Amino acid sequence: MPMSTLKELCAGLPLNPLPVNRGRDPKVPHAPVRTPALSPQEEKLALRNALRYFPPSLHATLAAEFAQELRQYGHIYMYRFCPPISMRAYPIDQYPCRMRQAAAIMHMIMNNLDPAVAQFPQELVTYGGNGQVFSNWAQFWLVLHYLSEMSEEQTLVLYSGHPLGLFPSTPSSPRAVITNGMVIPNYSSRDEYEKMFALGNTMYGQMTAGSYCYIGPQGIVHGTTLTILNAGRRYLGSGDLRGKVFVTSGLGGMSGAQAKASVIAGCVGVIAEVRELLLLKSARGEGGLFVVISNARLFNSPLRSDVARSPATLLHVCECVALAREAKRCKIPLSLGYHGNVVDLWERLVKEYEATGDLLADLGSDQTSLHNPFSGGYYPAQLALHQANRLMSADPIRFRSIVQDSLRRQVRAINKLAEAGMFFWDYGNAFLLEAQRAGAEVNKGGAGKTEFRYPSYVQHIMGDIFSLGFGPFRWVCTSGDPHDLAETDDIATTVLEDISTSGGELHVRQQYNDNICWIRQAGKHDMVVGSQARILYSDQKGRVSIALAINRAIAEGRVSAPVVISRDHHDVSGTDSPFRETSNVYDGSAFCADMAVQNFVGDAFRGATWVALHNGGGVGWGEVINGGFGLVLDGSEEAGRRARMMLNWDVSNGVARRCWSGNKNAYDTIQRTMEEQSQLRVTMPFHVQDEQLLDGALQG
C-alpha cells in the first residue's frame, strides 16, 4: 500500500482494501520469540481478542495470519498493518490535527517508533527488549486517528496500548491518560504477564516507551555520564577519571550509552556485547565506541593502528585486556567494545589479576536487560547467540537453568575482583536481584530486603542527587529544527549559570556545574537521534525556570514552534522501585507505591498535557510502579501557569517523601523550598536521637 502523507495515516485503520501483508522486514532487528505457553482455549481467546479491531467481513482473511503470528512469534503484532511510511518525528505543523497538543503527542509517538530510535520497530518495542509503545499496529492506527480528531474538550484514554476512546473532559484536563500493566498485584508475575500480553490484555511499557517520551540514547548517556563521574568521586576520591578502567556489559537500547558516557567522563570503558550488529553500530559513530574487538577483527583503534589496518587479524579476550591496559597506562579516554560474553571477560580479568597481581578494573557494573532475563535480556556464557535464541523458546526451563548458572559464574568473578579493590555497583537492571534468585553470593549479612553485597547506583550515587531534587528533565523541539534546539540549549545554560552563581551549598552547585558542562558539550558529542531533544539534570528551581524561559522564547518567536517538556520516569518522584529509584529509602516504605501514583494524579490536575502510569520499567514487571508526563509549551500565559504549577509539584512530592523517610539532603531541600514557597507546607519528621531508647522500650 503506497503511502506518502500523514493525512492517510490519520484516517483510521486501512480496511478497504486491506494493505498487502509484507510480513517482517528482514532489514531491521526483531524481538526474540515470546513464550506465553497458552492453552488451546487461551490461543482461541487471543485470536478472538485481536479480531475485535476488525469487522466480521475481514475475520476469515485475518484469523489465519494472526494465528500464525501467535504460534510463530508468541504474540499478534499484526505485521500486515505496519505502515509503509518513513516513521519519524515530523514537524508539528505537518500533522493533520485540530489542536497542537494532539499533534505534539503524535510527534512523540512516531519518534518512539523511528527505526533510528526503536530497538525492534516492527514489534513496536522502543527499548529494553520489551518496552512497548503499543501492543499491535491496529492500536497505533486508531490512536493517531483519535488524536487527529480530538478537540480541547476531549481526553483520549488508553489501557495498556488499547485506545478505549475519546471521552468528554475540560480544556484544563490532560489530552491523554495512559495506564500500562495495571495488573492486580497478586497476578503481577512474569509468567502471568506473558499470557496476558499474548492475549492482548496488558502491556509492558518500560518507562518512556509506553508514555511516548523516549528521546533516544541521549537520556541514558547523560545519566550514565553523571553516574560514572559521581562513582569516581565516591569510590576513587576524584572526578578525574583519566587512566581509570570501567568494565561493564551491554550495548543495546539503554546500555548502548555506556560507550559514549565513558569517553565523556574521561575513563577507559570496556564493554562486552554478544551481538556483533550492536557493536558495529556503535563503532560507526552511533554509540561512541572507538575500538571493537571480536574473534575476527578490530576497528578504529587509536592505540594499535598496525592491527586496525588488518581486518583479518585474530583477536580475543586477551587482546581486549591488553588494549585496556595500554589505554590505562596512556590515560586515553577510550571505549573498547568486546564482542563476546561478559562472563568470559570477568573471568579473564580474574586470571590476569591472579597471575600478575595487577588489578586492571577500577570500577565495574552491568547493564544487561536482567529485568527480562529469560527472553533475550541476558545471554549465558555457555551458549552461542544463535543457540541461546533457539533454546529460550524451545526449552525455556533448561534455558532458565543455564542463565542462572552463568549469573553464578559472573558473580564469583566479580566478587574476587571486588575483594582485590574494584568497586562494583548494580545499575538498576535487576542484576543483583536475579543473581540472588540464581543462588549467587550477593547477600549482605544483617541487611534489609533491598540491600545486597554491592550497592545499587541509587543507594550510593544517584539517590542523594534525587534527594536534592535533581533528576532527568528533558524537552523536545517539535519543529524538528536544530536551530530551535540550539536556542533552547543557550536558554537552559543561561538559566543554570544564573542559579549556580547566586550561591547555595557546594554539593548543589557541583550538580549545576556538571550539567552546565554537559549542555555546553552536548552539541559536540552529537547526541540527537530522532527528535530534536535535550536532557539535563536539574532541581525544582532549575526546571521551572528553564520551562518558563523556553515558553517566553516561543512567545517572542525565538523558538519557532511548541516545545514538549518531560522527564524520565527514573526521577525524584516518578518511580517507586525498591531495587532502584527508592532503594535508598530505609524506613520500610521502599515497597510502597504511593509516591508514583500520587505523582501521576497530581500532574494530571496541575496541567500536564498527558500522563502515564506503568507497572514495570527498569528492574522489571511486578517490581516497580512508575509514571511520567508530557507538557506542551506553546508560548501562552496558560502554558506558563501550567508549567509552574505542575513542575513544582512534580519535584516536591518526591523530595517530601524522601525527607519523611530520613534522608538529610531531602530534609534540607524541602525545608529550603518551603521558605521560598509560602503555600507549601510539608509534614517534617522528628528523628529518634537515642537508639537505646528503642531497645529499652521493646525489652520492657
Automatic annotation (TrEMBL):
Domain (Urocanase N-terminal): residue spans on this chain: 87-213
Reaction(s) catalysed (UniProt annotation): 4-imidazolone-5-propanoate = trans-urocanate + H2O
One of the GO biological process terms: L-histidine catabolic process to glutamate and formamide
Lineage: superkingdom: Eukaryota
Gene3D superfamilies assigned to the protein according to its UniProt record, in alphabetical order: Urocanase like domains, Urocanase superfamily
Pfam families: Urocanase (PF01175), Urocanase_C (PF17392), Urocanase_N (PF17391)
Enzyme Commission code(s) on record: 4.2.1.49
GO molecular function: urocanate hydratase activity
Keyword Transferase found: no
Record-annotated Urocanase C-terminal domain positions: 464-671
SUPFAM superfamilies: Urocanase (SSF111326)
Keywords: Histidine metabolism, Lyase, NAD
Pathway membership, UniProt: Amino-acid degradation; L-histidine degradation into L-glutamate; N-formimidoyl-L-glutamate from L-histidine: step 2/3
Listed HAMAP family: HutU (MF_00577)
PANTHER family reported in the protein's UniProt record: UROCANATE HYDRATASE
Descriptive protein name: Urocanate hydratase
Organism the protein comes from: Scleropages formosus (Asian bonytongue)
